[in-house]
Amino acid sequence: GAVVSQHPSWVICKSGTSVKIECRSLDFQATTMFWYRQFPKQSLMLMATSNEGSKATYEQGVEKDKFLINHASLTLSTLTVTSAHPEDSSFYICSASGQGATSPLHFGNGTRLTVT
Amino acid sequence: GQNIDQPTEMTATEGAIVQINCTYQTSGFNGLFWYQQHAGEAPTFLSYNVLDGLEEKGRFSSFLSRSKGYSYLLLKELQMKDSASYLCAVSDSNYQLIWGAGTKLIIKP
Fold first, then answer.
1. Is the pLDDT of residue B60 over 90?
2. Which stretch of DSSP H or E encloses residue B13?
3. What DSSP string runs through A43-60?
């Protein structure tokens, strides 16, 4: 089955620094990847849709200059949290689907970000 | 607006059967997905329904009624490892996924 790899699994950084999270589709090409954020005991919140070779589409309320997304190839998308603050501490999850609009999303294992 | 409703929390006993319901109101419909999410982990795909009826996959089954905007996930022979949140998600007319808030299932011995 489709596998999505996300790295790192967890990261602790100081306030004001930037953190990059990578999301790779291992056995399929993903023209579109999705970035989610999940706070404790809350549901998934879609942050942005990452499109290969073009600009990402951000959901309302998500700052595109703070959460930089780069989808440079069909197998890699990156999310960079710039100038991180404690309120950015969350569980960030990427996902991608295989061929076909009705293919299920496959998720990376997530990245737990803690900003001190 | 678009809306997915599912119970916040359910409790069941090990070895028993539990049914988790999901009702939806979306602009168009291109299928309904169920995902399992253990605490601190990413969701994993369980099932996909696009036609009415029951899809069985081992201990888990998923049912869909498009006319009623209703689905359920049925878990049989419950095991302690089934304790998790179960997320219902609908693909709308633009193939965008609309997510429910999830149902936390607690299994007791």
1. yes
2. strand B9-13
3. --EEEEEEETTS--EEPT
Whether residue A60 lies within 8 A of chain B, CB to CB, comes out as no
Chain B CA closest to residue A10: B40
At residue A51 the predicted structure's pLDDT band, cuts being 50, 70 and 90, is confident
Residue A93: the pLDDT is 95
Sign of CA dihedral B88, B26, A107, A98: positive
Nearest residue of chain B to residue A110 (CA atoms)? B42
CA–CA separation, B10 vs A89, rounded Å?
A: 28
Among partner residues B31, B41, B95, which is closest to A110 by beta-carbon distance? B41
Instruction: Choose among A43, A101, A110: nearest Cβ to B30.
Output: A101
Average pLDDT over chain B, rounded to an integer: 95
Tell me the count of A-B CB pairs closer than 8 A: 40
Average pLDDT over residues B24-30: 93
Sheet hosting strand B18-25, strand order edge to edge = B3-5, B18-25, B70-75, B60-65, B53-57
What's the half-sphere exposure (Cβ side, CA atoms, 13 Å) at B70?
7
β-strand pairing of B103-108 with B9-13: parallel
